[in-house]
């Protein structure tokens, strides 16, 4: 199979990442101009558009989407709630909910109806609805809804359980995949659970739309017989999944995901014109083990692609998103010509892109990795783009496909969890991405991300543009693996660099050097923390680089006694472990060390430690206070101070410290934050405290008075993305600038986006204390 491939360095450098990848690559692939960049304009949580009286925590999602012909009203399916939602995007930077329609209560199309797809024809919304009561008795209909009045105009029986819909360019025909999906808990005769065949088999339903009156619309079923699909895995049970219509409006491409095939259907004749296997591919240089370590030395053998979404690049090339199902999934996407020949395959590119941008999901490494599910193709600004969505790493990769046989990576866009619907709006140079994962119990909410292409949207774009951190290649040529950055420290001898660290999201501890002289900042060195020559397992929540070399680390333990200060040499080898005093560790629950900062002057070396919350053993006078401790390295003693935390009235929330840094000889800065994210985030702030002239008496706790320096919520919201919960790093670099960073939790119950905030000169940020 001929592939058009590039090195990952070249791949990455075609986007905003090129600043961090060296002069040679950057010269070969220059950074795109503002006219060619997609800017994030807004992130709209769809629970904000829920019906009156519906609890905010009720599951509600945005999956497949369409847009009105004027490009101003966005319509999305919500299978969890049995609704379709309407959102006004007249101002794409300020989406506004227009309400929802309940399929049962408002449209009367079935008590258990689920919308699976949606399209717009003129003034009508075509809602594809699954009304099946069982897998063995599948049913569905097409509900035609007036876009202006939201009234049900007509229903059309589809003869089976439907999935996706596509329209011809002139909107005179629609094609609907009738999947009649399998029951994953049923074993057919001689097979295992979920195996095929499970009849009745699916087919394609064509809907002819000859005029503006829905009463004249008619259907034509295209049977997918075993004879027509001969050569596929289980041709008697084709399981059509996704449909796309070519630019000429004459041919429908249908993915048969579980059969690992693609069928081409002639619309005029209503017959299958070609069927081909999507084939198999082996992928190397990826992480294939869920072991808490990002090892990019694994591979998968020849594996069926099992495509989900499909899109046409031009009249003779189509592309598939190879999500996989029960037998396959190859972590990428593929371009075929209409004969079924592979002309290009992404191979490991998207896996390695996820690693480079901190979006690698280690929990999915042993399964289907980035799991490429969504795919859309459109021409914006005269250029043909493919938009490729990763369900598990929460991004959309943008490719230039003007040359269909040689896709060229352009940019990576961060989304919220589980991007499902990818909707370009060429008339307005917009891209809308619907993310389907919604679980209020872990603060993950479904949303719609809005991106605008070109210079006109730069004024309202999120800052900083994603990604704000990328990694360079290691000595073996692999992007340095990273994530869950929970600490920051200046490099005391280098103005260009900071140090950060990964926490317990990974099974081994890593110190990472961050070049902040470039945008995005570049992780260019990885130091593994070792104990006796073996990689150590630490939950690093604080790091401070020492002027004399090496590091002080704050390791948060699962129990109070496991919290400790750790000193390493410059190569990460542990030299000393300092436990917290017994009376302090006895009062810690799961909230321990969350920040470390060290000073060294004529008074000696001292290490400051921030504990996230108060001690369970603290008396009433210290209620609501976190502890800040200072360790005197020379004599091995501790002094403790009480920091007054703010309060919250939100159920399940709490306020705590997440970082500490030294401003000057007498001033410390801390990050105080709540547990909330998205629109609910309220407390993400930098405060300063003055160090008392005298230490508290031994066995007592001193008191501190805090001063607000900067509310970070506006800084986080200025990215126009999901407002991140965990601001866990803060430092003043040797360049005099103030930096803050968010912990992405390794994508566990988080969007995965890491935000590096550049807050400006310390002399300005901390003006009152310098």
Automatic annotation (TrEMBL):
Gene3D superfamilies, per database record: YVTN repeat-like/Quinoprotein amine dehydrogenase
Any Pfam family the entry gives: Phytase-like
Species the sequence originates in: Cellulomonas humilata
Span of domain Phytase-like: 481-745
Signal sequence range: 1-28
Highest taxon in the source lineage: Bacteria
Keywords: Signal
Name the UniProt record assigns to this protein: Esterase-like activity of phytase family protein
Domain Choice-of-anchor I stretches: 62-326
């Amino acid at each position: 199979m001929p592939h058009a491939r590039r090195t990952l360095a070249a791949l990455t450098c075609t986007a905003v990442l090129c600043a961090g990848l060296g002069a040679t690559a950057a010269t070969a692939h220059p950074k795109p101009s503002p006219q060619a960049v997609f800017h994030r304009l807004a992130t709209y949580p769809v629970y904000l558009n829920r019906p009156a009286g519906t609890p905010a925590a009720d599951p509600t999602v945005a999956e497949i989407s369409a847009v009105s012909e004027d490009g101003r009203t966005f319509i999305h399916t919500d299978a969890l709630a049995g609704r379709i939602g309407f959102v006004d995007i007249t101002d794409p930077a300020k989406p506004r909910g227009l309400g929802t329609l309940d399929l049962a209560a408002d449209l009367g199309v079935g008590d258990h109806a689920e919308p699976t797809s949606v399209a717009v024809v003129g003034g009508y919304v075509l809602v594809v609805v699954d009304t099946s009561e069982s897998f063995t008795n599948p049913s569905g209909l097409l509900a035609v809804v007036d876009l202006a009045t939201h009234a049900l105009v007509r229903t059309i029986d589809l003869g089976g359980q439907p999935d996706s819909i596509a329209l011809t360019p002139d909107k005179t025909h629609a094609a609907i995949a009738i999947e009649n999906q399998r029951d994953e808990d049923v074993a057919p005769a001689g097979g295992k659970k979920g195996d095929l065949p499970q009849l009745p088999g699916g087919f394609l339903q064509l809907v002819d739309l000859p005029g503006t009156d829905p009463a004249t619309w008619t259907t034509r079923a295209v049977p997918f017989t075993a004879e027509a699909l001969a050569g596929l895995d289980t041709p008697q049970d084709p399981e059509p999944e996704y449909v796309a219509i070519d630019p000429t409006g004459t041919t429908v491409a249908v993915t048969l995901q579980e059969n690992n095939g693609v069928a081409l259907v002639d619309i005029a004749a209503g017959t299958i014109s070609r069927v081909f296997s999507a084939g198999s591919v082996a992928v190397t240089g990826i992480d294939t083990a869920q072991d808490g370590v990002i090892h990019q030395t694994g591979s998968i053998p020849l594996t069926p692609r099992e495509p989900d979404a499909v899109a046409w690049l031009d009249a003779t090339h189509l592309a598939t998103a190879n999500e996989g199902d029960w037998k396959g999934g190859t972590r990428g996407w593929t371009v075929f010509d209409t004969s079924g020949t592979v002309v290009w395959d992404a191979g490991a590119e998207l896996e390695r892109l996820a690693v480079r941008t901190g979006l690698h999901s280690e929990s999915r490494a042993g399964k289907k990795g980035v799991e490429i599910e969504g795919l859309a193709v459109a021409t914006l600004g005269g250029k043909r783009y493919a938009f490729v969505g990763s369900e598990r790493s929460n991004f959309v990769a943008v490719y230039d496909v003007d040359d269909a046989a040689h896709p060229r990576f352009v940019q990576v866009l961060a989304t919220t969890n589980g991007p499902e619907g990818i909707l370009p709006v060429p008339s307005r140079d917009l891209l809308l991405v619907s993310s389907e994962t919604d679980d209020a119990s872990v603060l993950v909410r479904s949303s719609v991300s809005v991106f605008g292409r070109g210079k006109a949207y730069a004024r309202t774009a999120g800052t900083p543009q994603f990604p704000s951190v990328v990694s360079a290649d290691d000595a073996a040529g692999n992007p340095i693996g990273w994530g869950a950055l929970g600490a920051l420290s200046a490099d005391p001898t280098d103005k260009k660099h900071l140090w950060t660290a990964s926490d317990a999201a990974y099974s081994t501890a890593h110190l990472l050097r961050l070049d902040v002289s470039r945008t995005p900042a570049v992780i260019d060195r990885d130091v593994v923390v070792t104990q006796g020559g073996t990689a150590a397992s630490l939950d690093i929540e604080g790091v401070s680089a020492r002027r004399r070399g090496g590091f002080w680390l704050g390791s948060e333990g699962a129990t109070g006694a496991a919290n400790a200060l750790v000193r390493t040499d410059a190569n990460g080898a542990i030299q000393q472990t300092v436990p917290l005093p017994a009376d302090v560790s006895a009062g810690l629950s799961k909230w321990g060390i969350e920040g470390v900062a060290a000073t060294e002057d004529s008074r000696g070396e001292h290490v400051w430690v921030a504990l996230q919350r108060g001690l369970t053993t603290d008396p009433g006078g210290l209620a609501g206070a976190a502890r800040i401790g200072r360790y005197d390295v020379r004599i091995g003693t501790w002094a403790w101070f009480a920091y007054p935390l703010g309060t919250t009235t939100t159920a399940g929330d709490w306020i705590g410290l997440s970082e500490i840094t030294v401003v000057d000889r007498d001033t410390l800065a801390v990050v105080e934050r709540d547990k909330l994210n998205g629109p609910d985030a309220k407390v993400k702030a930098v405060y300063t405290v003055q160090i008392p002239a005298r230490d508290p008496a031994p066995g007592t706790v001193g008191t501190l008075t805090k001063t607000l320096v900067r509310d970070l919520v506006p800084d986080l919201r200025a990215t126009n993305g999901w407002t991140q919960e965990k601001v866990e790093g803060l430092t003043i670099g040797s360049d005099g600038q103030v930096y803050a960073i968010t912990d992405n939790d390794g994508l566990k119950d988080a969007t995965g986006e890491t935000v590096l905030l550049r807050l400006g000169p310390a002399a300005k940020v901390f003006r009152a204390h310098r």
